[in-house]
Amino acid sequence: MAHHHHGDGSGGVGVVGAPQVALVGNPNSGKSSLFNRLTGLRSKTGNYPGVTVSRFVGGCAIDGCDFTVEDLPGSYSLEPISPDEEIVADILEGRVEGVGQPDVVLAVVDATTLQRGLVLVSQLLQLDRPVCLVITFTDELVTRQGALDVAALGRAVGVPAIAVVANRTGRLTELRELLKDHTSWPSPPVPPPSEHGELDAWIVSVLHAAGYRAPQPHQATRSVDRVLLHPLWGAVVFLGVMFAFFQVIFGVAAPLQGLVESLFGWLGSLVEDHVGNPVLSGLLGHAIIGGVGGVVVFVPQIMLLFLLISILEGVGYLSRAAFLMDRLLSRFGLEGRAFVALLSSFACAVPGIMATRTMPSAKERIATMMAAPLMTCSARLPVYVLLIGLLVPTSARVGPVGAQGLVMFGLYLLGAVSAMLAAWVFRRLSDRGDQPALPFYLEMPPYRIPSLRSVLLSMWESAVTFLRKVGSIILLTTVALWVLLNLPAHSAADLSRAGIDPDDRSAAAAFTVEHSYAASVGRALEPVFEPLGFDWRVNVGVLASISARETFVATMGQISSADNPEDPAQALKDWTYTDG
Question: By the 8 A CB rule, do 554 and 474 touch?
Answer without folding.
Answer: yes
